[in-house]
Q: What sequence folds into this?
């Protein structure tokens, strides 16, 4: 266990401030990702070594550069988008906090146990404070979660976001992680090293003839079902408000009400807040 740099007291893994002197000790998910930097660097460099031998080095460098330009995207449906934009005081919360505050119902028992169990396995008690997003290059997110992609400002996430190579639930299952046990190292990244995680995960599939136009699709693909999604998950500690939004990508040109009226209202609210609407 580490000690607070300000007062020397032991630091718990679940806090973002020292419980003795309130000194900022960094977000717990980011600290956990920082501990995996060395292991991630090994994976990252090994992919480049393979690319050199197989002739895909130049294409991999271009992919690496593209991944440095990525951002976090949250997908929602039109109803939630309208609600979120309707009041500047609204916050983007989490499943566990919503259930705890009695502002939403718990999911069906099996899904509830699974969700809380996986979050506890990877994050411990601070799992209830994690908001989930996907890493995107072109502004399109996971349509299985909603047709509207909210692109988050980098300033809103860069210091408190960590990244995981795949969906949290899939990761725990694929790695065979038992509750209470540690996860393998090298599969998480801090925001500034998100490109390394993308290369470590996808780099072997970047060939000499891979085009830059393919990078967004290789990074994120979303089907009609969430089980078909392939992406790098972004974990954001703490709430998000309207000011965290950079833009929203979605459809507003419906022919029929009520979708037309609702989307027009959401678009107007977004533009009043000084944010961009990207028509799909």
A:
């Amino acid at each position: 266990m580490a000690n607070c740099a300000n007062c020397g007291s032991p630091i718990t893994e679940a806090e973002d401030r020292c419980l003795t002197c309130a000194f900022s000790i960094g977000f717990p998910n980011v600290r956990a990702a920082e501990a995996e930097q060395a292991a991630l660097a090994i994976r990252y460099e090994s992919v480049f070594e393979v690319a050199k031998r197989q002739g895909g080095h130049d294409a991999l460098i271009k992919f690496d550069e593209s991944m440095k330009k990525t951002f976090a995207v949250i997908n929602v449906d039109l109803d939630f988008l309208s609600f979120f934009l309707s009041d500047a005081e609204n916050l983007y919360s989490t499943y566990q906090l919503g259930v705890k505050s009695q502002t939403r119902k718990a999911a069906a028992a099996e899904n509830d146990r699974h969700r809380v169990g996986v979050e506890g396995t990877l994050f411990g008690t601070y799992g209830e404070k994690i908001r989930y997003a996907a890493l995107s290059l072109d502004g399109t997110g996971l349509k299985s979660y909603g047709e509207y992609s909210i692109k988050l400002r980098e300033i809103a996430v860069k210091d408190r976001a960590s990244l995981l190579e795949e969906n949290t639930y899939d990761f725990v299952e694929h790695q065979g992680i038992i509750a209470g046990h540690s996860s393998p190292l090298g599969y998480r990244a801090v925001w500034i090293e998100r490109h390394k995680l993308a290369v470590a995960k996808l780099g072997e599939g970047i060939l000499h003839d891979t085009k830059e136009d393919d990078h967004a699709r290789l990074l994120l693909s979303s089907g009609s079902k969430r089980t078909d999604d392939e992406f790098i998950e972004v974990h954001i500690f703490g709430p998000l408000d309207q000011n965290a939004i950079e833009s929203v990508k979605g459809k507003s040109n419906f022919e029929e009400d009520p979708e037309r009226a609702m989307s027009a209202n959401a678009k107007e609210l977004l533009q009043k807040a000084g944010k961009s609407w990207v028509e799909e």
